Amino acid sequence: MSDGKEARESEAEAREDLKFYIQIRRHADRTFLFVFDQDLIESKKSTFYKRKVDLMCLEKQLSVFFDRSDSINLYGRRAIDKAIEAGYVHPEGVSEIKGVPCAIYIKM
Fold first, then answer.
1. Are 35 and 80 in contact (CB under 8 A)?
2. How far, CA to CA in Å, does 67 sit from each of 26, 80, 91, 105?
3. Domain at 18-106, CATH class
């Protein structure tokens, strides 16, 4: 039987392994970031299945991409939760497209 500390450590390790797919587009002097939960790109049942992406990143790397972007388009609950935690998105600003949570941040 594991104690609470082991369970928390295991959960923290699992969160470190969360992966996201990223698309980066540049226009003029602006950077547009698209972030997708891993399962949205890999699941055959997803609207976004096999969508062309530029790279995969770990959860801990997202903040670097967020900080360098002028616009962030987020798809999936986990990506949105990270943006909420980082202060880029307000929880009431989350919508849905075909059942997939989505949100947009635009730097002013």
1. no
2. 15, 15, 19, 11
3. alpha beta
